Amino acid sequence: MSRGFVKEGDQEEPVIIPQRAVLPDQVINYVTPQGYQALKEELDQLEHDFSHIVETNETERRRVQTLISGKIQLLKERLASARPIDLQEQPQGEVRFGARVSLYNAAIKSKQVFTITGVDEANVNEGKIAFTTPIAKALMGAKVGETVEFKLGNEVRLLRVDEIDYTYVKD
After folding, report:
1. Which of 91, 101, 137, 158 has the most CB atoms around its CB within 10 Å?
2. Per-residue pLDDT at 91
3. Which CATH number does the domain housing residue 100 bear?
C-alpha cells in the first residue's frame, strides 16, 4: 500500500541508532586488554537486554528491538576489528599506545596525566584519551624528559614528558 493511504498516527518514526566513537578510515582499531573486555561485556549486556525486552506495546517493542539489534551489530563489527595490545610488550621507555603519561604543560603551567587508549575506551573525565587525538599523536615516541611541540590551532604548546607507565590500570 502506498504511504499516502496510511493514517498519520500509524506511521512509525525511524529508529536512530547512535554511532560508536569515530575510528578514522584505514586506522587499526587498537584496544587495551581492559578495553577489549569492556566491549565484550557491553555485547553480553546488549544481548541480555534484547532477550529480556518487557515492552507490551508492539510498536514500542519493535522500536526497542531495532535499536538494540543495531547497537549489537555495530558492536560486533567493532569487536571483529579490535586488535588488543599487550601493554607489557610496548617499549617501556617511550610513549606508545596504552601508556599512562604524566607531563608538564608549560602553556598552562600545570601537570597533566592521561592514559592513551582505544577510541571506544576514551573518556576525558576518566583521564583516557584516544590514540587518534592530536595530543596523543604529538606525544607518540617521546621519552621521559623530552619536550614535544603540540600545535593547537595557531598556538604551539610545549609538553614535557615527566613519566611513562604501562602498569597503571584504571577501570
Report:
1. 101
2. 92
3. 3.10.50.30
Determine the Cα–Cα distance for residues 115 and 171; give it in Å rounded to an integer. 11
Q: Could you give the number of structural domains in the chain?
A: 2
Enclosing domain of residue 126: 92-165
One domain for residues 75 and 97: no
Distance (Å, rounded) from C-alpha 153 to C-alpha 107?
A: 14
pLDDT tens digits along 71-95: 999 999 999 999 999 999 999 999 9
Q: Is residue 15 included in any domain, yes or no?
A: no
> Would you state the pLDDT for residue 171?
45
Is the pLDDT at 160 greater than 90, yes or no? yes
- Shared-domain flag, residues 35 and 99: no
DSSP of 88-108 = GGS-TTB--TT-EEEEEETTT
Residue 15: which of 81, 59, 67 has the closest Cα? 67
Q: Are the C-beta atoms of 120 and 20 separated by less than 8 Å?
A: yes
pLDDT tens figures, 101-129: 999 998 889 999 999 999 999 999 999 99
161 - beta bridge partners? 103
Beta bridge partners of 116: 129
